[in-house]
Queue: 2 jobs
Job 1
Amino acid sequence: MLPTVTLISWLLTAGIGAYMLSRWIADGGVRKQSANADALSPAVVLGHASLALTGLALWTAYTLTRWAPLAWSAVLVLMPAIGLGLSTVTLLTPFPTPGSPGRPGVGGRLAAPAEDVLASTLTDAALTRALTDAALASRLVEEVLASATADPVKPRRAKGHAAALIPASHGLLALTTFLLAVLSAVGTL
């Protein structure tokens, strides 16, 4: 029973992984990663998928034959697959980075807070002068408000938040699969 439950969990994990891999390839992931010397090598992503599928094949064979060395082989193959998967998630997850002048924080998926956009237009010298001159302070406030409305921060789409559920569910299912596989393999002793 436990080997079959593990196989089902592994198949669900592989299905989500196949979806993510196909999206990555369709979005030009291999080309983008190969073109950037500082980026994650496509071999890491493809190695993760290859090891996970090898482990799945071994586990399927174990489920059919109940030969213990196949179960342990699948668990052993799954360990580096998980390591590569964690590397992939860690290195491919976008994060906020400083953007170009006038568009700070647009480098990742998260936009900079509005106060960061406004603060980027103020210099210490301008702020110091504005504190001592009421006319200058009024003009500075008008300029900041004008620049903020001229380049508003675009609202985030709900899709971005829901998209994070895909890799999160893949990771949760992978952890579940690994634990079930180890428990099943231990049961063969």
Job 2
Amino acid sequence: MIHSMTGYASAHRNIAGAVIHLEVKSVNSRYLDISFRSGEDVRFLEMPLRERIAAAVSRGKVECRVNLLAQTTATHAREPNRAMIAELAGMERVVRELLPSVAPLGVAEVLRWPGVLADETIDQATLQTECLALADIALVEFVASREREGGKLAEVLLERAQRMRAHIADLAPLLPRVLDDYATRLATKLREALAGGDEERIRQEVGLFATRIDVAEEIARLATHLTETERVIKKGGAVGKRLDFLMQELNREANTLASKSVSAETTAIALELKLLIEQMREQVQNLE
């Protein structure tokens, strides 16, 4: 399967009265560009998470959000830190000796003091283990979402390639008649311009111009590039850059075909080919 560079996944898990929330999303980019938005308490996880993401995807602008949130529905009882309260009481006595008029500390103020009602802390090793396990789960869904999107893009590209083949098939039978008509018109104009001049010279000039407007090579190269495009799509993997190059080659041949056109029919087909190639190119920009 081919993969789109557009994807999204999120996951969360409970740990020691808190919730780890992880979100991964991406859009297209020429290279792999990973950025993070995370709280200070989990910022140390950015490097191992970067390694996990780089192992899962090869291209795209990826944004990873990681947050450690307090579990608001937690029902575990919390005991005040007696040592911290005693220390706070000692500091209050010193302050009141120096400033007797200062109001005494209230219960709410004491409980809000940092460390008095501290939640159970999570050591970094445990947090890293849990977060990386969560990242593995999220990345599986993230890659799957990019694969699903890539499958849809593959269908679009193959359908456009088939339409191009149909136009090329319509063009091939037209070429002999188009060349004969053009040669006849050119010979007539040359005779008029040369006023009954050398017939051998006229035949040479007509043959030379017919060679210049012959598009058999362009048609053959278009067919070859389409075959390679279909092969690359069906092979799968990281195909975005290869397909982008093939779109450039297809466009080059279509431009040459249009420039050599000497009839409205071949011009219309060349323009339709250019339109289909541009539609394919836009989709290829989203592929990994």
